[in-house]
Amino acid sequence: MEFRLDDKLVVAISSRALFDLEDGHRVFTEQGVDAYCHYQMSHENEILEPGVAFGLVRKLLALNHSDRSRHQVEVVLISRNSADTGLRIFNSISHYGLKITRAAFSGGASPFSYVAPFNADLFLSADPHDVRSALDAGIAAATIMPSKIDKNIGDQLRIAFDGDAVLFADDSERVFQDQGLAAFAESERNNASTPMIGGPFRHFLAVVHQLQSDWPQDQSPIRTALFTARSAPAHERVIRTLRAWDIRIDEAVFLGGLDKGAFLDTFGADIYFDDQQAHCDSARQYVPTGHVPHGVTNNT
């Protein structure tokens, strides 16, 4: 019997995003691959501590337990480990009761090439190079930022996005970078009725929106939010773009350049995606954060 994943939300995640593997990674960087293999195999019965994206994954998989949900979620492990060193990871997956059954262990090579065959809608990794490769291939992807923060409040899955160069293309951001705030505001005012081109996370948001449609809006186990540095008059184009896409976003916060951290903390995001490193450095002090190395601010 052939199984297919094209009717599901598929999230591919690296072992270092799912679990705290920093001790083992330190052995790898300081002592090499042979020492790393010996370390993991000698510790394979020791359960790993949850990583930055652990809470997100647990809430994603919990969506499969609802009788109302028609659209299932699949989480796939993508790892540079070998099958031998990956045994500790699967032991930890079993310990925590995570329903992850599919994996690719690339034995030290980049595991990115397996992301597309799994039909992933989102790829989360601690390796920026693999993340950039996924983005170049048209897959929503983010580098999980180091953080000890785990909101994990309640059962509702809360996903937050930046706007330009994440949900939307970076055309408007390029105007801001090249010509300044006044030119940006004027351009957005003049183009308020013209929907923006989709960015790397447009498809992922659309799939999440499809999942949300299984529930009445006030009963959904998923809540989404946009946190953008935009302010009026640049807000109108955002609203009209989402309306043109026929995609619902539950909350929108137009910050006009204010720091996003405390606002994300108020929302209680299980994950936040932003293209600018400075914003990610602030956000990760409050919520789990993924850096999206896409667009004009990441061209250097």
Task: Explain what you see.
The chain has a ten-stranded mixed sheet with strand order 3-2-1-4-5-10-9-6-7-8. The protein folds into two domains: 9-144, 3-Layer(aba) Sandwich (Rossmann fold), CATH 3.40.50; 157-294, HAD superfamily/HAD-like (Rossmann fold, 3-Layer(aba) Sandwich), CATH 3.40.50.1000. Helix 2 (22-31) packs antiparallel against helix 3, helix 3 packs parallel to helix 5 and helix 7 packs antiparallel against helix 8 (181-190). The mean pLDDT is 89. The chain contains twelve helices and ten strands. Helix 10 (235-245) links the parallel strand 7 and strand 8. The N and C termini lie far apart (48 Å). It has 300 residues and is an alpha/beta fold.
How do the strands of the widest beta sheet line up side by side?
Answer: 3-2-1-4-5-10-9-6-7-8
Name of the CATH homologous superfamily of the largest domain: HAD superfamily/HAD-like
| Main sheet overview | 10 strands, mixed
Task: Give the strand tally.
Answer: 10
Binned, the helix content reads 25-40%
Number of domains: 2
Structural class: alpha/beta
Low-confidence stretches: none
